[in-house]
Write a structure and sequence with these properties.
With about 290 residues, this protein is mainly alpha-helical. Helices cover about 75% and strands about 0% of the residues. It has 14 helices and no strands. Helix 2 runs antiparallel to helix 13, helix 3 packs across helix 5 and helix 4 runs antiparallel to helix 6. The protein is globular.
Length: about 290
């Protein structure tokens, strides 16, 4: 899949999307600046498309009323998006921008449907019985992100899409491990598979009590190693992307993977603080990838 260079999107719409990215996704935002201009604009657009409905779900009020309100916002957003896509226009800058990006880069509309279905699932599902259950959720919440980005960047072989899904899983699992405390305290969610909690002798009460013991450490080490394997499986696919987008994806992969390293350095304990890389560490890792 190849294309010629494309013209810029509407500046004011891109700026709205850029601000959302800067506010909510520091590693993603940092890596996005490594794309050439037209790819950077499209990446800002997609990030905003993901972020807005995610905010509806994550910031909903507690209880049934909160879930119903968030569900109504999602339904309205989905309907507005369908109309924006069909008409290639909208009064909403994020939807207007993404209608342009989806058509320009020939991103399958079905990907957006799958993503929004995952957001609806977040309103009701707070536990996942097995890793297969979790992966089915991650396909919509993360793998389709990689698929959309592959269409934006361009690829030489359709097998690149399989690698893109793996990178989406790797990044999403990294987020889950980093945000264990926040997801439980603020949203009542446990994303780690329940059968694996049982296998390692970890009880749900430990999330509420923020109690970290040897069993929890072993579980976290197991999940971290799984995430590392996903990065290893995904990274060869970067070579199948168009050259102008490869380095930025390599950097994004490295920066997200660095979160795992931070988690390892704090003994795999997610309750002592949110594992994150400093601006200096981001620059250092970027330079290593760029010059490697």
């Amino acid at each position: 899949m190849h294309r010629e260079s494309t013209p810029s999107c509407r500046t004011e719409d891109v700026e709205v999307a850029r601000r959302l990215n800067k506010k909510h996704g520091t590693s993603y935002y940092f890596a996005t600046w490594l794309f050439p201009g037209h790819l950077r604009e499209a990446t800002f657009a997609l990030y905003a498309f993901f972020r807005v409905p995610d905010e509806f779900v994550d910031n909903k009020a507690s209880g049934q009323a909160g879930a119903e309100q968030a569900g109504a916002l999602l339904k309205s957003w989905r309907a507005d998006w369908q109309q924006a896509y069909q008409q290639r226009d909208s009064s909403d800058p994020v939807l207007r921008l993404n209608a342009e990006v989806f058509h320009r880069y020939q991103i399958p509309y079905s990907y957006s449907e799958v993503f929004l279905a995952a957001m609806f699932r977040d309103l009701s599902d707070t536990r996942y019985g097995t890793y297969a259950d979790l992966e089915s959720y991650m396909y919509g919440s993360a793998a389709v992100v990689g698929l959309m980005m592959s269409h934006v960047i361009g690829f030489s072989d359709p097998v690149a899409l399989e690698y893109a899904k793996k990178l989406g899983y790797a990044m999403q699992l990294t987020n889950f491990l980093r945000d264990i405390d926040e997801d439980f305290v603020e949203r009542g969610r446990i994303y780690l598979p329940l059968d694996e909690l049982a296998r390692f002798g970890v009880r749900e009460e430990q999330f509420a009590e923020r109690r970290f013991d040897k069993n929890f450490q072993t579980l976290m080490q197991f999940q971290t190693e799984r995430a590392h394997r996903l990065y290893d499986q995904a990274n060869p696919g970067i070579e199948l992307l168009r050259p102008e987008g490869r380095r930025a994806v390599r950097v994004a992969s490295a920066l997200y993977r660095a979160i795992l390293t931070k988690l390892e350095k704090q003994g795999y304990n997610p309750f002592v603080g949110r594992a994150r890389t400093s601006p200096l560490e981001k620059v250092q890792r970027t330079m290593r990838v760029w010059n490697g």
